[in-house]
């Protein structure tokens, strides 16, 4: 703060003595004249002293202000340069991590929970790489309070988890919900909010009640739409007073393709792939629309939340950018994956490219269906992991089904890093995909609901020093920031996953966690990537230099 100068008009002691001097004999003419002269001279001196004093103050003040302004200018220039050099995500950006119920909860036979299709699938010989199950997993069901404390220590602002449908309705469509299941999620939600962590709740992350699979074929039967609507309504009623962010279904593409064509995901029912894949996908979309319409009509006006759907999307570059055929193949690959489950929710029908190729095998929406579908999204969820090249097929396929319908060959680049899943990682592909989604659906915000990598971690020491994962997160979050700079409305990012967990058909042989889990002792240990992510959240991403500044 600048010093303050307050000059006074009071003369000093010597001046006062001179001005007030009177002869003891009384005032004579000479004395009067001299006194007048003295008074005039004293007054001049006083004015001169004041002029000098004020002039000095003015000069000093101007000089000081000049120095201060120069310093401020330099600091502002530095801050402006720093701001231009580093990313700065929005203040209300949702920074979080994600998990799913079957992968971490365990306690599959506790709390009134019914069987899921994954409980059954894990019992089939050869389906799980290490013959394991999710019976214990991370034991989150018993350890959720300490897990929430770990989230708080890592600075998470949001936590995405899924509700196990068979924990709420053990048989899928019971007359009344299971009170123990409701109680568990109530306690989890309350614990999160007590620690200032925003819950993001997924209604379906693949653990369909086995009873619905047995009674009418699960996702292959339209009856599931009504049952999903009832289940969703129960969750909105039980938890919606505290949950503001809902995701209906996680990766409908994975459910449809990998469960009914590839057979690698539960229920692994490969009977008639050219038809079943699209029937299952159709019912998944209708189930989302039913839940979203119920929420928007009956709950959103008072609960003030938002609802969306998480679809998986990988970016595809044309193998030969100069080739029209390869460019069309790249576009078609992304349409057959992401747009298959997003176009109907925005435009009311499947993409034209799919209609043209599939004909009558692609189910049709009724006018009522379309009415429920359109505007059923408040945001688009994106689960993104990898990028590949796409080109036209060089030879006819020897089988019918989804991959033949798409008719695209995929290849990688030797310069792209491969993770332990064998997936090609390329952060520029993440940026390009966000831009592609933003162009195709310009009115809706995007949330990256999953992004992460599995690394080779044969022991705990290797796992803790997970530089590959740290670099992955740094590069992909930077790419997300670049997309925001280019106008993409990205409002959140969730790392996959908070914990090493049961990784579906890979069992416990693949680790995606920010935190290492010892599956013998169940001890959790944050990896270096988790500590880096904590610091990035604190900095709102401003610790990330823009690509051109590195």
Structure in words:
The strands form 4 sheets. The chain has an 8-stranded parallel β-barrel, surrounded by 4 helices. 46% of the residues are buried. The longest helix is centred in the N-terminal third of the chain and has 57 residues, at 29-85. A hairpin with a 6-residue loop joins strand 14 and strand 15 (524-526). By secondary structure, it is α/β, with parallel strands linked by helices. It contains 20 helices and 15 strands. The protein is 47% helix and 13% strand.
List the helices and strands and how they pair.
Elements: H1 13-19, H2 29-85, E1 94-98, H3 101-104, H4 117-121, H5 140-153, E2 158-162, H6 165-168, H7 179-194, E3 198-204, H8 210-216, H9 223-239, E4 245-250, H10 252-260, H11 273-303, E5 306-312, E6 315-318, H12 324-337, H13 343-347, H14 352-358, H15 367-373, E7 379-383, E8 387-392, H16 402-406, E9 408-411, E10 417-418, E11 424-425, H17 427-440, E12 446-450, H18 460-464, H19 467-485, E13 490-496, E14 515-517, E15 524-526, H20 528-538
Parallel strand pairs: 1-2, 1-13, 2-3, 3-4, 4-5, 5-7, 6-8, 7-12, 12-13
Antiparallel strand pairs: 8-9, 10-11, 14-15
